Amino acid sequence: MWVLALASGALCAAAGPASHTVNIDAVAYVPETLTVHQGDAVTWVNKDPFPHTVTAHGSFDSHGIAANAPRGDSWRRKTGVYDYICTLHPNMKGTLKVE
Question: What is the 3-state secondary structure of 32-93?
Answer without folding.
Answer: CEEEECCCCEEEEEECCCCCECCEECCCEECCCECCCCCCCCCCCCCCEEEEEEECCEEEEE
